[in-house]
Amino acid sequence: MRDRMIDRSRMVRDGLALIQQRIERDFAEPRLRFPGLEFRPVAEWAHVQPPVDPSPTGAEGSDDDYVCISGGHSFRVSSDLGDEEIAVEVASQLQDDAMDQLGAPWPSLIVPDGITAVLEPQLSSDGVAVWATKAGYSCPIGRLQAVFGALHMIE
Fold it and tell me: What is residue 138's predicted lDDT score, i.e. its pLDDT?
């Protein structure tokens, strides 16, 4: 039983590490000065350095939840979510921070005819975390810069 708990804990940590890498790739844009992120068990909320907001967003939850920390901002991530759902939740929270910092929608694409379309994190119909626009453009979370940045479409 204990071995199963250790294996589950290791799988969760590995999944969070992959999500962290995906998110950090997407937010690696010089204008954002993205401080990176980390995940910690919610029990460590009060002990993180540098100190973060003592009252977590989404304070209701389980002791198995995690805290996502980016700079001085932190928020709870439910342990009930799957990896792709966590990627969408984290990207959405950090997208709000990016838009506040830039004072404009981010990430935005310049699509044919000079129209601007804003990408939003969501689950695809296949259950994959993606950045998608209402105009039909999308790419997996973790590939934003590789796909749209390489095409010079990000405004």
Answer: 95
Other beta carbons within 10 angstroms of residue 130's beta carbon come to 24
Strands 138-140 and 129-132: antiparallel
Residue 79: name the closest of 146, 151, 13 by CA: 13
Provide the pLDDT for residue 15: 86
Residue 69 structure tokens: 């920390």
Is residue 109 within 8 A of residue 81, CB to CB? The reply is no
Q: What is the pTM of this model?
A: 0.85
Q: pLDDT tens for residues 41-61?
A: 888 776 765 555 555 555 566
Give the list of residues 6+ apart from residue 152 with CB closer than 8 angstroms, or none.
Answer: none
Task: Give residue 11's pLDDT.
Answer: 67
What is the Cα–Cα distance from 64 to 66, expressed in whole angstroms?
7
Q: Please return the burial class of 81, using the count of CB atoms within 10 Å of its CB with bins 0-12, 13-18 and 19+.
A: middle
